[in-house]
Amino acid sequence: MLKWMRFGSPWIWLTAGSVSLSLLAVLGLLLMIGWQGLSYFWPAPVYQFSVAMADRQQVVLGEIYETKAVPRQQLLEAGYTLKGNDSPTIDRYLIKTGNRELADLDFVTVLATQIQSQTVARGVAVMDRVRNGKFYGYPQAVVDGHTRHEVSSLTMLETWLTEAEVMREAIRELNDSQYIPLYRQLAGMKSQHGNTASETTQQTIQAKLDTVTQQLAQMRQTLDGQALLVKDAQGQTVRIPLAEILYLWYPNDMSLPEKVAHWGRQIGHFVTDAPREANTEGGVFPAIFGTVLMVLLMSVIVTPLGVLAAIYLHEYAEQNRFTRLIRVAVINLAGVPSIVYGVFGLGFFVYMVGGTIDEIFFSDQLPAPTFGTPGILWSALTLAILTLPVVIVSTEEGLARIPPSIRHGSLALGATQAETLWRIVIPMASPAIMTGLILAVARAAGEVAPLMLVGVVKMAPSLPVDAQFPYLHLDRKFMHLGYHIYDVGFQSPNVEAARPLVYATSLLLVTVIVGLNLTAIGIRNHLREKFRDLEQ
């Protein structure tokens, strides 16, 4: 036993066990997030309940969102009257009923003792809408103006919804491509002092604008005249405009392949659509785009700064007390709370640098700031300062691993120190540089606190990249997956409805970080193989 302990075998097993437990914990966390997030998009069965309330009989139509066993004594203390059930625990169902415009909440809490009957609702449809969340009901007919078309099949409904979607896209395209440019052009002519544009030109633009406005009004009138008549759980007929219905499906009538296909489509919509209903509905594409763009900008900024600083400290600076002090400061900066960097970015980048840019280049637009307000550029610069110590330390370690004989051989052959650095040292240290970039990306993609001060918002009206010159708008605010998780999880007006989106967005953020890291790791491994022979 003493010999076994003397050779360090217990510590080897202890280390291996700790690593195994850590991997299991990480895997379990990812599985929990993945299950909670991805199961949200699966078409859950819809039930019709006959519920006995205190003073009336009520029909409830919806999905069983959550089931929880509650102690009987706790319900009695809360004032519930329990009859015909002596079990120590009673199931409490949280039923998602939707139909938010007909009720204040889209969830109903029902005890198992209150349910008199529970049946699978055949022929019920679930509609995902632009406003007011989901609607559960039985489609009856499609109204087009004064014409009524009885619902005969899902294909018939999909045809009408497709036509409504085409009309919606046509209205959006006409508004973005013609109405908005003409309106801005005309407003710009009228607002310019000493305008030299002739009245004929303004009248021509005004005539085009009036024509486009009339076309939009006619298209909207046609679209508003189309509606779906749906019978709700109480038997009342509700009129839902087709323009507000995004997707419709019959969850209780689907086969397994149809459910899998629907599940895949819903995940696709979640990734590619914009958020709705205060981020509790819709997708997260603007947040994905903003996160990736911000990380790429940060990488472009922090990599040259970190590499140049490391090269100076290791290759040019004398190894004295001053350089040792700089290294200690760099290492200590890695432990500064991220919110401090956010305050620094707000004060220095936004107010000082951005305010100076506005005074020099955009003075005619003041007091409305252009760059003197939080934006994606200042967010990228703030995170670049935050992750700079990681890149510096990693690059220095890579430079220290290169044998001095390689430098001496290059200098002996007549190369200058700059040529040696550019052609030999930096390429050989590139795997270490990529390692530092991987660590920087992993930290920057998950940071939220500093971004709340320097550019991230709950809802961004437009993406930082579009077809208008200069195409990349670094002054715009943006959405971020980390802040989206915080907003949906803690600031949402409907916590229960938003909870699955927290898990889904968390899984997506982990996927984005893993994807960025795998890309950087692939580049690092390629560079390592490329310069392995030179190191030997």
TrEMBL record:
Give the CC-aspect GO terms: plasma membrane
Q: Which GO terms describe its biological process?
A: phosphate ion transmembrane transport
Q: Which family does it belong to?
A: Belongs to the binding-protein-dependent transport system permease family. CysTW subfamily.
Cell compartments where the protein resides: Cell inner membrane; Cell membrane
Query: TM segments?
Result: 12-35, 284-313, 325-353, 376-399, 420-442, 501-523
Q: Keywords in alphabetical order, please.
A: Cell membrane, Membrane, Transmembrane, Transmembrane helix, Transport
This chain's protein is named: Phosphate transport system permease protein PstA
In which organism is this protein found? Photobacterium galatheae
UniProt domain ABC transmembrane type-1: residue ranges: 288-520
> Could you tell me which SUPFAM superfamilies the record lists for this protein?
MetI-like
GO-annotated molecular function: phosphate transmembrane transporter activity
Which is a Pfam family this sequence falls into? BPD_transp_1
The lineage's top-level taxon is Bacteria
Bilayer disposition of the protein: Multi-pass membrane protein
Flavoprotein: is it a keyword of this entry? Answer: no
Primary site of residence: membrane
